[in-house]
């Protein structure tokens, strides 16, 4: 990433998109480390986090994260998720934050030198272009290393810089909270792989003997 110490930075985190990208790469985001990392790279003006919330539920799994972010340096932008029924008759929720992200990025383009967008959504290409016309640089953080890739090719081309989230895993990531039996299975697979890598192949002459 190309950052300058005097850069005024603003972060725009599409919560659902970043969660999906990190999940596809097998790790979780440590939001404390994320904030610390970008504070090292310039003058952090604002860090926005966008998410839709399901209302009227006794417990929401995202609520503890949202509350923590709100008290620890992030500007929360939320709205109520809309309920709908999918083709299989299952209850789902939808919450598109694109408009909120676009409004805030356009407003911050005059107050920040470098905007960092944590999303791979191709719908943001025109937004990035508009922000660039105002004189701000834009870095997009997403990934093409997941299956399927999360970053739109058009968005990557438009951005001044593209950073693959996989390259930040050791900096802002933490191990994914998988069930214990899955963690143990994966650890066993890694041990077997290391054993295969370090095993010296039997010499053909010795094998014939």
Q: What's the tally of helices?
A: 9
Q: Which residues sit in consecutive blocks of at least 5 with pLDDT less than 50?
A: 178-188, 201-209
Radius of gyration: 21 Å
Strand order of the largest sheet: 4-3-1-7-8-9
What's the β-strand tally? Answer: 10
In terms of structural class, how would the helical and strand content be classed? alpha/beta
- Mean pLDDT comes to 85
Order of helices and strands: EHEHEHEEEHEHEHEHEHH
Can you put this structure into words, describing what you see?
This protein is α/β, with parallel strands linked by helices and 209 residues long. Helices cover 40% and strands 25% of the residues. It has helices at 15-25, 31-40, 63-71, 98-108, 125-133, 153-158, 169-172, 180-198, 204-208; strands at 8-14, 27-29, 43-53, 75-80, 82-85, 91-94, 114-118, 137-142, 161-164, 173-175. The chain has a six-stranded parallel β-sheet, with helices on both faces. A two-stranded antiparallel ribbon has the order 2-10. A two-stranded antiparallel sheet has the order 5-6. The N and C termini lie far apart (56 Å). Mean pLDDT is 85; it is low at 178-188 and 201-209.
List keywords for this structure.
209 residues, alpha/beta, 6-stranded parallel beta sheet, 10 strands, 40% helix
Quick overview of this protein structure:
With 209 residues, the protein is α/β, with parallel strands linked by helices. It has helices at 15-25, 31-40, 63-71, 98-108, 125-133, 153-158, 169-172, 180-198, 204-208; strands spanning 8-14, 27-29, 43-53, 75-80, 82-85, 91-94, 114-118, 137-142, 161-164, 173-175.
